[in-house]
Design a protein that fits this description.
It contains nine helices and twelve strands. The chain is an alpha/beta fold. It binds S-adenosylmethionine (SAM) and iron/sulfur cluster (SF4). Iron/sulfur cluster binds next to helix 9.
Length: 320
């Protein structure tokens, strides 16, 4: 076994697989109306499993399935079942939540699936339509599905906060976390290609923290070493309300502890969200495992310590 280590000594044990570049939503910070790649260019399930197994055999312990919207990939459950058989500790999903009810029974049978991240940026139907660019009628289903998923899984609700768009709802999210026993994580808007990111829309997490402190007592927790989230326990007086987190990729990047590898739906191996560094692994799948692994390690050696940076990366293709 070779460790997946870069030239800064960072060990990579977390793989994020984007299983499709398609999405049933078109969020203003993520999906800039690009044409989708032809389906024949996508990695097949067999190809995803082969690459994942190679990475798992060399140190990956945790896999997150993402997209685009993972549930729009046909037969996703079959892929999850196969990934579940790999020698990993955790298998997680990020989703916009809209299709969860359709698959909930199947999901509960996947033994390593414990954590589901569900995106929700607003409780207001009109704003939901503005942000996700689908009908406001979808909102109630997303909320119902968060409640449904939280009966079976650890659910984290991911909220991309945007100044003057949805930052008036931070207290509503704390109430929601309390009422539904879920963790809420406020994500700083990132400058991805085609995203609504600008000086006018970006909101640093410190401002949100200060706002929350007006009403609550926030106690910082000790975060796991590779955590991308700064986590807090929220109290009102002596009463525990909920746990929240801040994903501060822009104002306070976490490059020093980055342990993440990314595989896009078309097979681009990307060790960094804020870099154009990548190679298309699909083209090399005729190679034996040891040669494939060398290509991966060589790419990893070029991984830098970039912080936040504007690139040609489009979030809906990368999977967050
Ligand atoms: N469709 C799924 C979802 O929405 O959760 C999975 C893919 S989505 C690309 C993964 C995460 O990236 C979501 O939580 C989304 O809010 C976040 N995201 C997308 N674009 C972003 C941006 N420009 N800045 C910050 N977060 C972003
Ligand atoms: Fe789709 Fe998720 Fe991107 Fe929204 S954030 S467009 S739901 S992939």
């Amino acid at each position: 076994m070779k460790m997946l280590v870069d030239s800064f000594g960072r060990v990579h044990n977390y793989l994020r697989i984007s299983v499709t570049d398609r999405c049933n939503f078109r969020c203003i910070y993520c999906n800039p109306f690009l044409y989708y790649k032809p389906k024949k260019e996508l990695l097949s399930f067999e190809e995803i499993i082969r690459i994942s197994k190679l990475l798992v055999d060399n140190g990956v312990e945790k896999i997150r399935v993402t997209g685009g919207e993972p549930f729009v990939r046909k037969n996703l459950i079959q892929l999850l079942e196969k990934l579940n058989e790999l020698n990993i500790k955790e298998l997680n999903i990020s989703t916009n939540g809209y299709l969860i009810d359709k698959y909930i029974d199947d999901l509960t049978k996947i033994s390593k699936l414990r954590k589901i991240n569900i995106s929700l940026d607003t409780f207001k139907p009109e704003k939901f339509e503005f942000i996700s660019r689908v009908s406001e009628n979808y909102l109630s289903k997303v909320i119902d599905n968060i409640r449904l998923a939280s009966k079976y899984f650890d659910v984290k609700v991911n909220v991309v906060l945007m100044k003057n768009i949805n930052d008036d709802e931070v207290f509503d999210f704390v109430d929601f976390a309390f009422e539904n026993n879920v963790v809420v994580r406020f994500i700083e808007l990132m400058p991805m290609k085609g995203s609504i990111y600008s000086e006018q829309t970006f909101l640093p997490y410190t401002e949100v923290l200060e706002k929350l402190k007006e009403k609550y007592i926030l106690v910082k927790t000790e975060d796991p070493i590779n955590s991308t989230s700064k986590n807090y326990l929220v109290y009102k007086g002596r009463n525990f309300i909920c746990q929240i987190g801040f994903i501060t990729s822009v104002s306070s990047p976490f490059c020093s502890t980055c342990n993440r590898l990314r595989l896009t739906a078309t097979g681009n191996f990307k060790p960094c969200l804020f870099s154009n560094l990548e190679f298309n692994i699909k083209k090399y799948l005729h190679l034996p495992d040891d040669e494939l692994l060398n290509l991966i390690l060589n790419c990893l050696k070029l991984k830098k310590y970039i912080g936040v940076n504007m690139t040609d990366n489009v979030m809906v293709e990368m999977g967050g």
